[in-house]
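Recap from last week: sequence in, structure out.
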Amino acid sequence: MKYIIAIIRPDRLEEVQRALVARDIYLMTVSDVRGCGRQKGFVEQVRSRKLVNLVTKLKIEMAVNDEFVDAAVDAITLGARTGETGDGKIFVLPLEACVHVRTGASGPGAIGP
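Predicted structure tokens:
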């Protein structure tokens, strides 16, 4: 089991969802986030002070069974890529446990097919 975190441009969510659905991957959580990476945010002058404002992004989080990791990463990459700086990042982390609250199922079966 793996936990995938992807930071993408907000306008690319629909394309990422299409690419995931095409690979039979439906489970995800999406959050609005702000931050800066290589884009370094953008600088704004306010009353003689320079402020670095953070860029708005989306964070997609998903737990997947091992056989879906490559497909999920490929789908996110395909849907999120514009070729410009700021397309995002994908992190794949080991997932030690997963428990389905309603049924009590644990392990890969708790994630689903």
